[in-house]
Protein 1
Amino acid sequence: MAGVGLVVPPLLGFGCGSEEGQPPAGTITETQTIQEKVTRPLSQIDRYIDPLPVPDTLAPETERYPDTDYYEIRMSQFEQQLHSQLPRTAVWGYGGSFPGPTIEARRGRKTRIKWINDDLPGTHLLQQAIDPTIYQGREYPDVRTITHMHGCFVAPEADGQPDAWSTPGGSQTGPRHYGNEFTYPNDQPATMLWYHDHAMHITRLNVYAGLSGLYIIRDEEEDNLELPSGEYEIPLIIQDRFLTEEGLLTYPTNGTTPIHPIWVLHIFGDTPVINGSIYPFLDAEPRRYRLRLLNGSNARTWNLWFEKTGTPGNNGVGSVHPVSAIGTDGGLLPVPVQLEKVRLAPAERADIILDLTGFEKGTVLTLRNDARAAYPFGEEIILDNLMQVRVNRDIKGVDNTTKAERLNLPDMPVITSTPGLPKRIFFLGEQNDPEYGVIGWLINERFFHDPVEETPRAGTTEIWEIVNFTLDAHPFHIHLVQFQVLNRQPFDQWGYWYAYQDYLAESAPIMGPDDFLTGPAVPPPPEEAGWKDTALSMPGEVLRLVVPFNVPEGVEGPARYIYHCHMLEHEDNDMMRPFDVLQ
Ligand code: C2O
Ligand code: CU
Ligand code: CU
């Protein structure tokens, strides 16, 4: 396992450094039919010998509630083969699989899910990684879960928030527990959401153990586009993990400082896992595919591209094969965008078309990554060469789907000007200890359980300005809403930080970043110009979001939601805050 030691410059947390460690120099081999069950140490496994698994789509019970698809999904611990040359690995999962099964929903028809954690063991799979020093003096049972539907327009009681956890059997619950059976209205455009655990202070371990899965909403607008579907629509849930040479799942426990002797600043696994499989491959036909990408990693940002790494005549080997982005977190983009690289921060999704039309049999594309960890400046291992797509099947019938650049995507209002909208500022900074320096992160110097300070009104739109004082990029996520990125603008990080300290010291009103801006505001790249629920806040930049607030039908009174950094180690140690939507 790579060491996750601490490297912290005096003022600004830089993330983790690692002294050891190159990625395993995996040998890239041709497809082999490995029938013998001889296992090898992790560092000697072959790449691209296991077919990419695709999570099953669950069939709903449709009779139990009117106009509603009903499911019961159980969480449990089980063993799963992550690679054919490794022994089976103990993981947690929903519905007996890692990642969990996919739920498909139809816009306008509700989904109701009973999330059952009774089958989880009494001891956490990653018990040694539990660190009560991040509990802010509270006490929690080790095994506790609550499922959140990420990106969902949903009532607060059904949102699955950190304090809504319960233990297996339900003998203990968090202070804001509303049961385990939730209704999702599906009153939002077609897109891919995902469900994952969100229990207070332990989300990172529960999700890492395997508690996540996909939730796909479909609608007529999407149907009319004739996109690749069925076996030609493939989700890619991209994660990173640490495994021992024997294939046991591990999570770093070497801590940050004596203040938090176990909890680490963030983790960057040394093994890529896609749909629960290590270095898989996809056998493809020469036609269009729709890939639904999710960055399901705890903390790693990916910058992905497909590279031609093998062709029959060696033509074009080494060149990038561009893809077309057609959707973001919250739905389809207004126009398709041709892209060489797709950057995905934790929790972000990308809906892309990979066009293999006319490719000769024998063409091999490798999914590559060059994002540093911590993004963008860190020095942890860059995980590269994640999976292969091989064109080695004949096309079945004809490909009747529309070429990406000719897709007539539904209209979507892109907000580019926002005069007069109310603004709120959010400062991403550090938790500091007088003796040990940086021991974590905070938003606005507040802890999660400090009183609510943001109370937007339903039916209004606000500008949220995220000011990043750290040297890491943080994926800023807001529950309930889909927002748009207005722009990003560089500022004088030190100057503004000192001024901010002065405001705090004098309890003076906090000034906006205007006096400290050092360059023009840059609108988001076109592939980010859609509905988003998570956006990357870059170090030294102001990230401006346009956020419309509304609540689902039937929600009364102040509705409690949360916003947070989606690096799960950050979120677990209080880089997370509540807000109330007033009506
Ligand atoms: Cu992916 Cu608070 O959520
Ligand atoms: Cu969420
Ligand atoms: Cu963060």
Note: Residues 148, 150, 196, 198, 347, 477, 479, 564, 566 surround CU-O-CU linkage (ligand 1) (CB under 6 Å).
Protein 2
Amino acid sequence: MLTVAQARERILAGIQALPPLELRLQDALGAVLADDVRAPHALPRFANSAMDGYAVRSRDIEKASEAHPVVLRLIGEIKAGEGDRLKIEAGSCARIMTGAPIPTGADAVVPIELARGEGAEVAVLATPPVHGHVRPAGDDVHSGDLVVAEGSELGAAEIAMLASLGISPVMVRPRPRVAIVVTGDELVDVEVDPEPGRIRDSNSFALRALVTEAGGDPVPYRTVGDDLEEVTDVLREAAAAAALVVSAGGVSVGRYDFVKEAVERLGSIEFWRVAMQPGKPVVSGRIGEKPFLGLPGNPVSVHIGFEQFVRPVLRKMQGRTELLRPVIPASLTQPLHKRPGRLHFVRVALKQGPDGVLATPIGKQGSHIQSSLIGCDGVARFDIDQTELHPGDLVDVEVWRVPAG
Ligand code: AMP
Ligand code: MG
């Protein structure tokens, strides 16, 4: 049986980044940049004032003080948005607003609070340093600087930077469309009160949320009964409309588990089963050209299988550089034991302790125990051949979110 790392490597080897497309900057939040962006010009583009005040030649007012003000001739005013039209000569100054270009000849700004203007004269009460309160061209970014790297997700900061540099439309990778197919004769819709023996479908909700959080676009399909023809039809339809097909349920060894057979009909199976718990009977394959991942139906298996395999695939399709969750060492607070042979993903809550992060396993760990996904900050890896872990042992935790408390 493949290890989790081997399985993931094999899956990712068959995945390419989606072809880039152009988006207007206002539509690009959350998209992933397809190329490095270099600054086409400096920021600020021109030297400008950091204060409302007076643009001066600093050597004119070297000796200015409260007791001995230096009086300058006021030759005009420069508002933000105006071009450079004034020239500051010896003994003169111009009123200037924040963001307005520093006029020719000036090399500093005296803040309004350190001067007294009367008519055409300004008494300067203190000496600003040379270049004081001037924001020089290129202070923030030089022309040609790499400002946002390929593979970066565009958040508020990146989008604002690209706006300052006039970069719209922008080349990004699209959100991958992910077809979601859930199987099981027992499933009813959320709004239906299940008859005896039937249950509400939660996996399609989980998968839609997980896909969206991972940067994909979920495309839900109708719930499929445990019937080979029906499973085959829906998977064929799903693959035609998406970059990736993800299913839940029907991949185990039961008499009514038809997903593998359907995928074999429509394409091929690359592997089945991974040495992990929960989620062992995961299937990887192709439906036509499209990658397919079949997760077992237990709700926690869906969640863990998504984290281990689907999320990295979606991130690779988006051209992201970091495919996996961050891993941190944490100190286990409770003992754990298991049989060797499978890597267990233990749902944990994380907390900052006096000497580092503490990881506390949450409740029961069965693959049907949905309640221990609530309040879960990540999973501790209980390694394949380990059988005992003791309180205080350091474990590797794959962090899903920054803990609440
Ligand atoms: P399976 O992998 O099809 O054998 O399903 C394993 C377990 O997960 C069974 O107890 C199913 O009833 C349950 N299950 C399957 N699909 C879903 C679903 N969509 N929502 C909630 N539970 C499910
Ligand atoms: Mg089933």
Note: The chain has a mean pLDDT of 96.
Protein 3
Amino acid sequence: MKPLDPQKLPIHLAVIMDGNGRWAQQRMLKRIVGHQRGAETVKMVVEQSSLLGIKYLTLFAFSSENWSRPVLEVRALMTLLKKYIRQETARMMRKNIRYNVIGNRCDLSDDVNETLDEAIRKTAANTGMVLTLALSYGGRQELCRAAAHLAQDVVDGKLSAGDITTKLFDSYLDTGGLPDPDFLIRTSGEMRISNFLLWQLAYTELYFTNTNWPDFTINELHKALNDFQSRERRFGMTGDQITERGDLSND
Ligand code: IPE
Ligand code: IPE
Ligand code: MG
């Protein structure tokens, strides 16, 4: 495999971690075993991304729509989430990683929110990678919340409708302050976005692999990043313009 060019890594990598259930079912195991194995892949991807110098890693861990799953699966996922955060916070401190959460936290139980708050507080001063967990997250729901908040600010006279630009709207999203993802990886062979970061993925390079999340390895991550490095990002311009400019920003 080609070595990675450290200058051409995504600044923000987003991942739809999919296929835990099928991984387990193919082995006659319970779906939760797939989620447990998936948590090991999370550790690897967090560690590798931070080692590579990726500045922002965003993981789709639980969607707004995932609340419709069987109660026992939802409960098991929440228990696993709490266990993961508690176990990993010390490592996040050693690796200088800062936790961040996007999604509708009102839907999460008090104990999950307390665990998240503690991890966010403890890692708040870390200056390395920002690890964003998308929990109870849905892109449409996020856009609605942002629109409602913006409308309220107009009603309150803090701004007028004419002030609304893409940049301002961006700051009302849960991801306000984060750059848009440069690269999105989705595992398990599904080629859809499933309501993830609908606004933010406008110019993201997409990568799909058939591998289920628990089987996703360091090699696969490097293969995906190699693929990213071979892409030409044009942001609506021509290839020649991009070559002349020699940069990859979309501002
Ligand atoms: C991803 O794996 C984890 C979550 C959505 C929480 P799935 O649980 O969706 O696995 P499949 O897609 O059923 O195989
Ligand atoms: C997307 O996976 C959500 C997460 C990875 C957390 P799903 O498994 O929920 O997506 P669909 O239902 O197959 O689109
Ligand atoms: Mg799935």
Note: DSSP finds eight helices and six strands in the chain.
Protein 4
Amino acid sequence: MKKIRILGIESSCDETSVSVVEKANGQINILSNIVKSQLDIHQDFGGVVPELAARAHSDVIDKLIKMAMDKSRLSFRDIDAIASTAGPGLMGGLLVGVVAAKTLSSALKKPFIAVNHLEGHALSIRLETDIDFPYLLLLVSGGHTEFTMINKFNSYKRIGTTIDDALGEAFDKTARLLKLGYPGGPEIEKYALKGNELRFKLPRPLIHEKNCHFSFAGLKSAVATVVAQHKCTEKFKKDMAASFQKTINEILYTKTSYAIDMFQAHQRKNRTVKIVVAGGVAANKSLRKSLEKIEKERDCEFLFPSIKYCTDNGAMIALAGIERFERKLFNKLNFKPKPRWPLDKKAIFMKGKRAVGH
Ligand code: KG4
Ligand code: ZN
């Protein structure tokens, strides 16, 4: 059987990453996965500065392509197609990756594949685990929070999302209020380890609504109110981080149980529900542990990619490229990057909407 080898480029946010992934005899081999984080550039600002991000991607993209090729020990002749994240994300960064991929594609006369970044996260589990569709995806990243049923490749039905902030955003904003570093998620996780999670009772928006939608803006405002009433001591930071994380865990626990109900109702066969948790926030160990408790109550199994494949990486983009290559889903060189690009094209835009009834 022929081997498929794809070069994958990721540059939609604050990580530049290039990877070569191979599929040989049904087996996935990650030949290289080079990641250059822009942490040092954005941390003083407490968030990603789009213009600086774009410049930083363009500064390193050519070097990273060379590093990924060298590490893979292949030559461009061995590569079957070039895949790049083409949305959703920050336009400046997307343009850097897409133009690099189109240039290679044109020079090498190999197909160009425009990958939806969310599809990369959705498939990332398959880099290491041989899991088949259908599965339920809980995607929790800096820009997205959604439950999506994946019945087969390229068939996405979103059953829940956030009506305001994404979960990663809630972590980052809370970390900023507590004067912790950027990105906030790992900092909150670290502080929470040493804090009293019962000290602050925070709101759990929408938790009593029997649907799979989220809201995190009110939670962040509640944190801001408590912060304003206290001295920001190390003890306070630890207790607040722990209380915040516990609240998040409770919200996700409840909403994931609802999502399992919906997924089961959709499946004709009565089989164990597989839930893949992906995206940067899926790196959180306390969240992983909390969700796994559902396995004791329900016929379900949680699957988490390794931490390095939860946060943004080129390997997941190359893998999405392999799936598309196999189906000859190529794109023309005039493909325009899309800053907004939902996985489920029929899903309605929920930001600012009341979740009831959807
Ligand atoms: O998937 P990702 O790398 O980029 C996007 O596509 O957005 O996710 C980044 C987000 C950030 O908000 C970051 O704070 C969060 O993932 N994150 C975490 C952890 N590691 C990263 N959140 C909670 N706990 C973590 N350990
Ligand atoms: Zn991402």
Note: The CA atoms of residues 303 and 326 lie 25 Å apart.
